[in-house]
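Standup, Tuesday
Yesterday: got the pipeline producing structure tokens again.
Today: sanity-check two examples.
Blockers: none.

Example 1:
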Amino acid sequence: MKLVIREYLSMLKESGEIDALLPDLLLAMGIDLLSRPAIGSRQFGVDIPAVGIDPKDNRQKLFLLTVKKGDINRNSWNGDKNAVRQSLDEILDSYLRNRVRPEHEALPKKIILATGGELKQDVEPDWVNYVHRHAGSDPKYGEVEFDFWGADQLTLLIEQYLLDEYLFPESVQKYLRKTIALADQNEDEPRYFYKLIEEILFQGNLTKDKSKSAERKRQKALCLLDLSLNIVFYWCQEADNLKPALLCAERTVLLTWDWMRQNELFNCKTTNEKFHHLLSTYLKVSSAYASKLQPHCFVKDGLFGYGADELEYPLRTFEVIGILGTLGMVFINLLAITDNEGLRESYSKQMRAVGEMLAALVANNPSAFVPLHDFHSIDINLGLLTLASAGCTNVAAHWVTELGSRIFLAYKTGKYFPIASDRYDDLIAIEVGQAPPKEKLMEVSTLLPTLAGWFAVLNLADEYKPFQEAITKTFATTNFQFWFPDEETDKYLYKTNAGYESGTTLSSIQLPKTLDDFKTYIFRLHEKQEEVFSNLSCVNGGWFVLGLIASRHFRTPIIPGYWQNYVCEQDINEEQIPEEQSHNLE
């Protein structure tokens, strides 16, 4: 593990990476932060101030950390205004003079140079001489000492304080090493990391007690989980394969939320802070995945790739649509809970960028119009939610209408239509002419009524009429269905496919002839389910996007409330649902 951690540290950059790890390390050492690293504000050389007992001599001290990236060489020592020497001078000349709180003035001051690299041999004498000149007892500031935390020292501290044998047993370390070893593989899910999450959260004897020791143990567990996820992420970057890291990040935030739900920790401030850090890591991973995909979205057939075929191309396309759609909705969620105007502008810009990527993907990849499984309704829903939120309604409208007509034509020809089965073998059987009758393969559909719902969201009244007539006639034997959550769904939503374990299926849906009638139908459905939807812990807790992440990850049907809200915001006539179509929700 020492080699794993040291290699990971060498990959970190200063802003948002090393200075995100150090607070967790200090916390594990029992040292309390006075403030967290902030971007844009003047820090007078100090990135992280903290107070606590120094484990070296068991004395209480004021710790002042200045954080740098990579190795400390001649240039980084004294090359520009952000160089090490300039930061150290600023601490001595400004921070100690003006920024130390009165209650800390009498404490010894320990100035620490922290980096994920090492102190190069040619600059070591400069560091030693600087420390020799400035360390010791100062008549005004009291006792001043220095320390260097490079990759070797940080590795030892992380292993000692974060990876202790109780919280991070050998079995968990093995899971992490196996995950890293398979970072370049996509044949299977990263199941070893899933076991790591389970062992840390659900087998680590973490209690919901409000005691300080229990709270600190929970914080330490979530810090460890975040560290493990970051290590996997950077190894996947090295392997040029981010999919395992994305799956690990999705599973981490979902299971952590479920653990918080089970232990009634939503009101625990420190636990919520650590959960926000995990969400930030998830956002970092998914944003990196999107950045890697971005060039391919703006090129004709950019997702086709090498070795793709007529089946793999659509499967790959809808997976990417689901990932990008989920990322876009993360930014929507952040916009909904953020008051800071600077952050809101940043989130809005990133959300629009994801919307533009999705729009370009749909325009450049014909496979976006060829769903092969009914469960592709999940990815289509996610993509449409982001397109609609990003203002790309013309693209969304074109995509919806074309999907409807192409599914109709594909079913007529008997190939490349969305089968109810999730088996890849069934797609092969259709390809080689050995499949069951198409009526059997499409005896159930959630995709078609969902598309009809999006005609309502986008107000496509003229386009809805031929769509309704065509599918009502062509798919006369297909059972159109919606899945809705129930009171039990929240117990399953964040850890498995909740559609198998809970919920209510509304079946035998008959699409009304006019869009206004269908809007009224949707409104009444939503009215019946609104309370259950609102009571989901993720919706009630302000992180509604977790339900969408769960759908993408576990393939639970998208809860209709997510898109029905758009329809219910419109001015529609509140007519009653025909009695024969409402009995399944009673």
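Example 2:
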Amino acid sequence: MYSHSYLFGGNAPFIEELYEQYLADPNAVPAEWRNYFDKLAQAPGAAERDVPHLPIQESFVQLAKKPAAGQRVSPVAEWESMQKQVGVLKLIAAYRGLGSRQANLDPLLRMDQKTLGELDPASHGLTDADMAVQFNVGSLVGPQKLPLSEILSRLKQTYCGNIGLEYMHVSNSDEQKWLQQRFEGDLSTPRYDAATKKRILKQITAAETLERYLHTKYVGQKRFSLEGGESTIAALDHLIQNGTAHGVKELIIGMAHRGRLNVLVNTLGKLPRDLFAEFEGKPTMELASGDVKYHMGFSSDIPTQHGPMHVSLAFNPSHLEIVNPVVEGSVRARQERRGDTERTQVVPVLIHGDSAFSGLGVNQGTFNLSQTRGYGTGGTLHIVINNQVGFTTSDTRDMRSTLYCTDVAKMIEAPIFHVNGDDPEAVCYVMQAALDYRMAFKKDVVIDLVCYRKLGHNEGDDPFLTQPMMYKKIAKHAGVRAMYAERLVTEGVLAADEAEGLIRAYRDALDKGEHVEQTVLSNYRREHALDWSQYAGTHWAHPTDTTLQLADIQRLTEKTTSVPEGFKLHPTVDKVLKARRAMAEGEQNVDWGMAETLAYASLVSSGYSVRISGEDSGRGTFSHRHSVLHDQNRERWDQGVFVPLANIADNQGRFEVIDSILNEEAVLAYEYGYACSAPDQLVIWEAQFGDFANGAQVAIDQFISSGETKWGRLSGLSLILPHGYDGQGPEHSSARLERWLQLCAEHNIQIIMPSEAAQMFHVLRRQMLRPYRKPLIIFMSKRLLRYKDSMSPIDSLTTGGFRPVIGDTTVADPKKVRRVVLCAGQVYYDLFNARKERGLEQEIAIVRIEQLYPFPTEQLAAELARFAGVKDVMWVQEEPRNQGAWYQIRHRLEGLLGNKQSLSFAGRPSSASPAVGYMSKHVAQLKAFLEEAMTLAK
């Protein structure tokens, strides 16, 4: 048996070090200590995982104090006492880690809770006889010593009441201590005054009454009711009213359908009469197509004790969680517009469904963005409206593979607060804790609001079809409003008739179509509000000078090719920068990398900001951009990296290039959201290969191509999609031009397929300099990046502009032309060379259509007019016949032909795959359609 001298408090660090050595290798410590630690691990109820070190160390410090003078302690008694003390600390650790599993979270009390042995004192060697014994509580917040009965009571109240906490997966000790101080200090028990309780009751009364009003007024219409989760409205109100105390100026909310109409009216203050008009098919604003009422967004300014709070609810399609990265991008843009480097003034709030939160991969992508430098927003407040059923899944074993629907959040060590939705005070309490945590640590935090769904997935569904037993319980449930009202009456906070009076007052306001509970500031102008009116009603062909003076080009080249003294460039990069200097002097033609660089440099020097992101955007996937330079002798990012475009002038616009996470869906949606809140910035997303955008198709279909016609949302987002058939196989050839063109209508997006470097320069500048904000999709050839014939003389940047159609200037006499070939992109050079090889320069004219949408009808008509006597017009593409532009623009081409002219096609044969995988077959197909294009009728 050990002498107590080993356990002196001063030896605690030594003992902890021994324990660490034991964990790594039991044979590394002396036998007597190894035996002790072995017995500790084998003690009754010992967890399989390691016992937390800090509580053990603290217990050693407390236990190891010398006995009073003259006092003798039996070694056996001392050993038993120490075992009991360690058992108490293990019990505390067990409640911290597992207490949420025994918490009272389910309002329906449907499932029998499994008893966890780790939460039983007996599992840790503690008996009823120990309940009155005083033990040291270690790091448990409160008095240093308490009877075991009191320790157990505090643990149950903190971790097993209406709030269940998960935070032991958070590795940062400061964050753990903060959470323990907060919840253990309060015993997870809110203590609100009467005024706050009455406000909470008003909020849930508003939530319930609105749903029941709509249910009877618009029978059978979909609204995705919030009934069962009404505490959400109280939580949002609490967040708004208390957020401004932290200096929060804006809350940007993203949510799907469930409860959206309730949030619009009761949180953002949308007029009920406007909502009723939407139910009745009478929209309050005319849009080209519009959208259903539970997809619409809204913004308002709400007064609080500490100043106005601007609250925006993002527009959202039915693809549920896809709005999340859109919100994050919008928040980042707003923060940067405010100069909010601490990311405290604009806060994202995301409201999820339980199945969607765990089921949709975009959440993983969004979480992965949250702590990165180019995408972080300082932490997001997540609220999961957990109705415990998802859509119609009747068993959680079919809904997910994790214990909780919130487990995905553990990937970024976000703390998770589970809370019973029937306790609105607890819901507001965890909302305050979540806000405080977010502001303190700039990290995400999740509230799992466990509730139920009173009706079916929508109001036309019969939930008894799939959840009969659950809905029998729901039918008997009084509802959170009635239960809370009764509680306040019992507490003496409320008179018995006041609760019914709240309902009557709310319904009376609804009958008048007026504002209900939420007060909204009218005619309030925010300092950082955007003015989109300058972009309304403009045309893609708006006259714009995109040229640059030669002196400016040379000045900007000097800035973008200079590096700090002692900065060691890679030989390849050094060669690129020297070549760019030669290009500026007119000694070499301008390549694509130089054209891009000059476009960006000219914009940022004029005060515009540029943001480029993609999976290898700094260098450029094809090693052509080199906007981020790496010192070959220094590894540290803060010392070994130089970005010339960010160092042009003191008062320049911001230049930011980001090597993004390996994800298309979340990143592209994020950049869309950013662009929607930053019309004065050139925002670019670059795909590593064009067809990788397939992974972001939801963002493309639901936001980029249709956001304006559905919601009136303008966006100047630009995409660079590498595209071109070079024999690299199905996944590295096609950016799916046909899909993009199929999405084109009502001048919604711009599709560009440039064939010369100067075109890239002018189109990027045009995107910012015109008062026109529509998404720009650039199909960029990989091959042309280093193809000399596609490079441009320097004077093509100082004169001219972007040319939607490039005519054939090599034809001397248009009357001698026998065929006009129309094409787009890099295939032009294949056609040009094939024509030259056959000596057909004067018999075949090749016209390039560089802008495929909006279709340049007037420009193409003017070029074709030169060849009005040519009967044979052919469209040539390198994509398969059923892909590419052919089927999407054929009708436009035919509409420009004369009566005696005919239109034919040459290209690869129709294919189920975007491209072949065999180089020999690729070459054979290329040869075949070029031969067809060059073969003239005799």
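Quick observation on example 2: The chain has 32 helices and 24 strands. The domain at 550-798 is CATH 3.40.50.12470 (Rossmann fold).
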